[in-house]
Structures are given as C-alpha cells and as structure tokens.
Amino acid sequence: MGLQHNESIGDQPLIPRPECTPAALRAACAVVAPQFLAAYDQAKDQALAEAVEHGSLKPVHAYLAHWAALIEIERHPETARAYHRAEYLAQISSTPKEAREHLATAAGIYRDAAKAVHTE
Hints:
Elements: H1 22-32, H2 37-54, H3 58-75, H4 77-92, H5 96-119
Helix pairs in contact: 1-2, 1-3, 2-3, 3-5, 4-5
C-alpha cells in the first residue's frame, strides 16, 4: 500500500525528488498527486504545441520548472496542505486584502519549492 497524504509522517518527503524530465515528473505526480495527472498531461501537450509553434524550447522549460515546483510541494504533506489551504482561503476570502494575504502565503510556498528544485 502506497503512502497517501492523509497518513501522518510529518513533512518528510513521500518520495525522492524526481528528475526534471517529463516522464519522471509524471510518475511522481501519479504517486503524490494523482488528481493532477490530467492537468499535467494537458500542460505538457500545450507546452509541446507552443514549442513547435514558436520554434523555441522555452515553453517546455517553463512547464518542466512549474511542474517540478508543484511536485516538490506535493512531496511534502504538510507543505502541500498549507499551500492548498492558502489557495482555498484566497478563493473564499471576503475582502481583497485577505485574499492577497493568502495568495502571498501560497506564492511563498511555491517560490521556496521552485528554489529547492533549481538548487539541487
């Protein structure tokens, strides 16, 4: 039986950090966030289409960097809970100020995750 986010192991990573390749990120997504597989596949297809259209690999690099950061968040259960909670609270906030505060929290978590995968 695989680990699920509801199993309490603190914020230790559920899986090792995957390589920043489409196959490795998709495999990691299937384990730590299977609910996002359709979005992952759609983002990959869109990045490839944009790369062909523009004759540039920048869209592919951007998709890989984005999904590496998201997987980094999902690898850590407590971090993932805080990230998704902040996003949810931003959506249901009653004032723009409150929404901005929650979005700043989510952005900080995302930024830290992006730094973690780019410094490795």
